[in-house]
């Protein structure tokens, strides 16, 4: 993409409640998400959809289903439309959105639908941990029983060692996430927690404890990406995709020069900002991969929002609250809205569209016009960043 | 565990067989496929000493399928004497005694539950150096 490319817009965005949907299937959840997105644009004829992208990380492992492109397109009645599934672990949705935006910008189709969907709770925790661990290097690291949560825990302890923090310093992240989720009807955990409750929680992967670990749950979200010509026929505010970029790093954590530097997070953010002709200072609201406080800390510092070693202090001073300098997780983030694995990136966009259209209710960031969403696959193996601008 | 998959990992898992870049001196384990621009001469085999120190560690209580038997267990990133940073489990130690910088050495232990196919998978773990 370059600056002469045509613009792409988000014209509809919808999601299901995040939760343990024991009585609902992957197809059922996806269908609801697509119908919710289309309900926002009743003028749009579904026959204009030229492409369907399905973002999913764990379909084979947890939902026992393959060929998710046509399977979930058909679930929403989009039979016959070219459809494919994109897997990039936790970054699946960001990569899928990037592909959809490129297709629309290139004129390959006027309307593309991106569905992020995960069905987790048909199986137990041990296969889930095994599935999530596939995002790392299975032969070099996975064989040693390392989990994705364990990898973040390794980085958290090293970060505490290098910068002189105790684990209490990470409390502001889950506390903020829960405070915001308490006001989001679609969140998994609609209650607040205190820093004291965080301090007393049971360990999961030390120093990460239960209140600093997201719960992976079921959910589906969908966005409709359209050309400028179609977006301009619609009433109301327009959400322009000002930049999208995907970057990658080695999956082997030990092979990185500095494991605390998420190089792909920085590279993709810089490329997306450059496309959008915006800088970090222009970003007014963020959605990040924040299943643990350390993940948000490393992303914020690697992208350059804060100096290395300072993000926990900034968060303690209110920087990530809806009235702070970098409002984060206004719908609850991975921790409290719920971690929907490969579907997370579309949930992020659903929330940011609410922010940019002034419909975010009690967690509205005043005057939000520029928003940044970033998802990571594994520990920053893939990073996909999206810049949205309200017009 | 798939037998062929484990078999091809033997040299690294049993003996910490790694490789060193003849140009840059970089050391890595397990060996890695050749990158564009490299030739079979770029990397030479190197058997690592098995000594290093803890770069970071965590004790896991929620573990993947096949590892439930061992839970809870400590995992670590270990900085080897030769410079490589590798992921492994720690063993023969108490959680309260672990700290970053602690000297550790390689030992061979069972890595995964034998499971339905009965394959015994051994490989390296690290323990605190016995003084």
From TrEMBL, chain A:
Residues 9-228 form the Thiolase N-terminal domain. InterPro entries: Thiolase (IPR002155), Thiolase-like (IPR016039), Thiolase_C_2 (IPR055140), Thiolase_N (IPR020616). It comes from the Bacteria. GO terms for molecular function: acyltransferase activity, transferring groups other than amino-acyl groups. Pfam families: Thiolase_C_1 (PF22691), Thiolase_N (PF00108). Residues 247-388 form the Thiolase C-terminal domain. This is Acetyl-CoA acetyltransferase-like protein. It comes from Oscillochloris trichoides DG-6.
């Amino acid at each position: 993409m370059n600056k002469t490319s045509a613009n792409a817009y988000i014209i509809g965005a919808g999601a299901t409640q995040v939760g343990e949907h024991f009585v609902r299937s992957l197809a059922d959840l996806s269908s609801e998400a697509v119908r919710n997105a289309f309900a926002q644009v009743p003028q749009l004829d579904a026959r204009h959809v030229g492409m369907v992208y399905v973002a999913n990380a764990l379909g084979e492992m947890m939902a026992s289903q393959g060929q998710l492109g046509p399977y979930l397109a058909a679930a929403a009645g989009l039979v016959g439309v070219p459809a494919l599934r994109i897997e990039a672990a936790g970054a699946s949705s960001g990569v899928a959105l990037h592909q959809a935006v490129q297709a629309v910008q290139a004129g390959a189709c006027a309307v593309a639908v991106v569905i992020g969907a995960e069905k987790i709770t048909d199986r137990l925790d041990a296969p889930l941990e095994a599935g999530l661990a596939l995002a790392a290097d299975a032969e070099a690291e996975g064989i040693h029983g390392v989990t994705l949560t364990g990898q973040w825990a390794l980085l958290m302890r090293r970060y505490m060692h290098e910068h002189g923090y105790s684990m209490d310093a990470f409390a502001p992240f889950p506390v903020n996430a829960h405070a915001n989720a308490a006001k989001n009807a679609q969140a998994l955990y609609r209650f607040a927690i205190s820093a004291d409750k965080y301090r007393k929680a049971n360990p999961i992967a030390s120093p990460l404890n239960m209140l600093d670990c997201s719960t992976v749950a079921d959910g589906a979200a969908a966005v409709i990406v359209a050309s400028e010509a179609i977006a301009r026929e619609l009433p109301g505010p327009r959400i322009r995709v000002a930049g999208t970029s995907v970057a990658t790093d080695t999956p082997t954590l030990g092979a990185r020069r500095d494991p605390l530097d998420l190089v792909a997070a920085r590279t993709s953010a810089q490329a997306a900002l450059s496309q959008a002709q915006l800088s970090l200072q222009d970003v007014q609201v963020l959605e990040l991969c924040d299943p643990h406080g350390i993940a948000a800390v490393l992303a914020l510092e690697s992208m350059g929002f804060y100096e290395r070693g300072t993000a926990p202090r900034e968060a303690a001073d209110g920087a990530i609250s809806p009235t702070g300098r970098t409002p984060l997780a206004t719908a609850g983030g991975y921790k409290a809205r719920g971690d929907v694995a490969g579907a997370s990136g579309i949930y992020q966009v659903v929330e940011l569209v609410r922010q940019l259209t002034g419909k975010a209710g009690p967690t509205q960031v005043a005057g939000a016009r520029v928003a940044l969403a970033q998802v990571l696959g594994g520990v920053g193996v893939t990073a996909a960043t999206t810049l949205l601008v309200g017009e | 565990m798939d037998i062929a998959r484990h078999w091809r990992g033997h040299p690294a898992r049993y003996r910490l067989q790694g490789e060193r870049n003849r140009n840059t001196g970089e050391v890595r384990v397990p060996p890695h496929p050749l990158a564009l621009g490299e030739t079979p001469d770029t990397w030479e085999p190197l058997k690592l000493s098995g000594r290093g120190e803890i770069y970071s560690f965590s004790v896991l209580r929620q573990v993947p399928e096949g590892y439930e038997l061992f839970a809870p267990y400590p995992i670590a990133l270990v900085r080897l004497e030769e410079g490589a940073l590798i992921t492994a489990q720690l063993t023969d130690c108490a959680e309260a005694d672990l700290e970053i910088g602690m000297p550790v050495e390689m030992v061979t232990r069972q890595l995964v539950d034998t499971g339905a196919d009965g394959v015994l998978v051994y490989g390296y773990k690290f323990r605190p150096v016995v003084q």
